Amino acid sequence: MTARLRRSAPPPPVRVVHLGLGAFSRAHQAWYTDRAADGDGWGIAAFTGRRPDLAEALSAQDGLYTLVTRGADGDAFATVGSLARAVPGGDHDAWLGAVASPDVRVLTTTVTEAGYLRAPGGGLDSAHPAVVRDVAALREDPRAPVVTAPARIVAGLLARRAADAGALALVPCDNLPENGRVLDRVLRDLAGAVDPSLLPWLDAAVSTATTMVDRITPAPTDADRAAVLAATGVDDAAPVVTEPFSEWVVSGAFPGGRPAWETAGAVVTDDVTPYEQRKLWLLNGGHSLLAYVGSQRGHATVDEAVRDPHCLDLLQRWWALCTPHLLLGRERAEEYCAALIERFANPRMRHALAQIAGDGSQKLPVRLLPVLRAERAAGRLPDVAVTVLAAWLLHLRGTGAPVRDLRADELRALGGRPPAEAVPAVLATLDPALADDAELVAAVRSRAGELSGRR
Ligand SMILES: NC(=O)c1ccc[n+]([C@@H]2O[C@H](COP(=O)([O-])OP(=O)(O)OC[C@H]3O[C@@H](n4cnc5c(N)ncnc54)[C@H](O)[C@@H]3O)[C@@H](O)[C@H]2O)c1
Ligand SMILES: O=P(O)(O)OC[C@@H](O)[C@@H](O)[C@H](O)[C@H](O)CO
């Protein structure tokens, strides 16, 4: 007999709002909240980016879903109950109501790296057409339905100030270094453009945490749904598959309180930076390397790519390059890399390289460039970084994984120029200083020629 997920008791009271309901937030923040010692007092109202599908599927099962923890040798199944409400992102009134609720003390986000809409200098890209539209709409009417993540959060904060609902902690959970500073900056830029009187209120009422998040969570597939049904008898329309490994490192102030995430394994610290570097350079940098080089070599998933000795050798050279620059030190880096090999090689995860390859313009600056810059400053030209940049260029020229990027049209046009022009033009989109580095430009051009000749 097929069972469906339904609650037999009311959900936990909503005290957390989440923006960017997808796979990862359900494998990570919702799971930590569910397992926290006081989790039954902290329900989450989670909003999708825009599409209603996932919210509708979850609402039909009272916000419950199956978390499949997929080890190399088998699956474990658990029902997660912390999602008290799942709401389509288009329901702006519901969003404003949730953020303005005095019961709510925490707002978490997973809106992707691109979702923060930063300009190359790090502030809000105020010339982005969607930002321009949202700013104009909020100036006209603070309750106007806006679409960008920064504008939705500012709209929610305007509603919260109007409701005098008290302190709120923002907790960004995207793969960005100093993600608290990133979020704070784009929100202040947008608030300043809409209603500068919000800025002193932000100082008084809103704190922004910084977090390092780590748990590999591929986009769920129909096969995952079928596996849940076969193993548990539950016809779950929205399960999530994740790996056994999980880390969450959080720093910041929570004047209105927060779930006791540390009772579920989160680390609370004063400084996230050493953990962020380790994770963003070794794991995410390694992922991007495999996504561009591996997909050029015909691989579809991370586990396939790491079984290719050429990709594995590059990955290990990348890790060796990063290690001396890591604040956590060699020993902790080597432990992490040893675990990473197992995590990447898990043959049952099927993590698509095409998913990881998306938004390289937003990811490479945080995953690759810090180490490349440190090496260039020391007078070295790291061969493995040259290879990743060359593989990214070839990806933009139409080989390997398909191009999905916040700046896809511009990047395709630049990448499609003759190689002598394409290389500096594409590198300049990551950092103009790269295009002025003649030795690097020549090396990337030569490596791209070698890689395309080899296919
Ligand atoms: N999946 C992972 O393994 C993993 C691990 C660590 C961190 N993360 C972080 O979480 C993010 C989301 O990953 P996911 O696996 O949940 O993806 P997902 O596609 O399942 O969900 C992404 C959610 O963000 C929303 N979104 C996308 N672009 C947006 C935008 N421009 N503005 C507002 N909302 C937007 C989507 O509508 C959706 O609700 C990643 O980009 C990454 O920064 C993911
Ligand atoms: O989720 P993205 O698109 O930022 O990056 C793809 C992967 O590198 C990433 O999701 C990792 O799986 C994750 O960061 C592991 O903790």
TrEMBL record:
List the Pfam families hit by this protein, alphabetically: Mannitol_dh, Mannitol_dh_C
Q: Does the keyword Oxidoreductase apply?
A: yes
What chemistry does it catalyse, as a reaction equation? D-mannitol 1-phosphate + NAD(+) = beta-D-fructose 6-phosphate + NADH + H(+)
Q: Which UniProt keywords apply?
A: Oxidoreductase
The organism's superkingdom is given as Bacteria
Molecular function GO labels:
mannitol-1-phosphate 5-dehydrogenase activity
Mannitol dehydrogenase C-terminal domain location is 271-445
Q: Which residues form the Mannitol dehydrogenase N-terminal domain?
A: 15-262
Q: What is this protein called?
A: Fructuronate reductase
Task: Name the source organism.
Answer: Geodermatophilus obscurus
